[in-house]
From TrEMBL:
InterPro entries: ARM-like, ARM-type_fold, HEAT, HEAT_type_2, PP2A_Regulatory_Subunit_A. The lineage of its organism: Eukaryota, Viridiplantae, Streptophyta, Embryophyta, Tracheophyta. It comes from Hibiscus sabdariffa (roselle). The keyword Repeat applies. The keyword Cytoplasm does not apply. This is Uncharacterized protein.
Length: 212
């Protein structure tokens, strides 16, 4: 239990000023990697929540070399809370390092996971996309994210399809009205006729948000 409390009291920025980035990274990295795979999910989530702060202190170069793979690995954790925290972590990292970095280091891997055979991981990717879209902006959302979401509307799993409807609704304020009419509305209309009641409900909610 002691390890759970460590991140609450770590002042990475203050430690960094005293001992420097090189020594800090050499000292922390083995512990971070070990805790990132701890069997107790609360330990893993505590580490995830401090990754953006750690990344901001150690810099983009260190992050890309050492921590990037861990952040993608957490998206496929067996525990929902870890996957959710991992999605939020990607958003915070995109805010920290910027759109260009996200396009190079996050988006390709996220989009590749969109076709995971495990539907829970596909749901996590949809959630990640919905969080990243406001950070990345209209152009990237339209060119990279929206096509993947629209394609997911053909998923065989109803939970995926109603999450597609929710993500599409979240895109409406981000993209141009022409994109809403040519890509988002037709997809929602099709989902509103789905055999599953939940899919129909969320698709209808999405269509109502467009009409308002």
């Amino acid at each position: 239990m002691f390890m759970l409390d460590v991140p609450k009291y770590c002042k990475f920025d203050q430690v960094n000023q005293v001992i420097g980035i090189d020594l800090l990274s050499q000292s922390l990295l083995p512990a971070i990697v070990e805790l990132a795979e701890d069997r107790h999910w609360r330990v893993r989530i505590a580490i995830i929540e401090y990754i953006p702060l750690l990344a901001s202190q150690l810099g983009v170069g260190f992050f890309d070399d050492k921590l990037g793979a861990l952040c993608m690995q957490w998206l496929q954790d067996k525990v929902y809370s870890i996957r959710d925290a991992a999605a939020n972590n990607l958003k915070r990292l995109a805010e920290e390092f910027g759109r260009d970095w996200a396009m190079e280091h996050i988006i390709p891997q996220v989009l590749e996971m969109a076709t995971s055979p495990h539907y829970l991981y596909r749901m996590t990717i949809l959630h990640s996309i919905s969080l990243l879209a406001p950070v990345l902006g209209s152009e990237i959302t339209c060119s990279k994210l929206l096509p993947v979401v629209v394609n997911a509307s053909n998923d065989r799993v109803a939970n995926i399809k109603f999450n597609v409807a929710k993500v599409l609704q979240s895109f409406v304020p981000i993209v141009d009205k022409s994109v809403v009419e040519t890509m988002i509305r037709p997809c929602l209309v099709e989902l509103s006729e789905d055999p599953d009641v939940d899919v129909r409900y969320f698709a209808t909610q999405g269509l109502k948000s467009i009409s308002h």
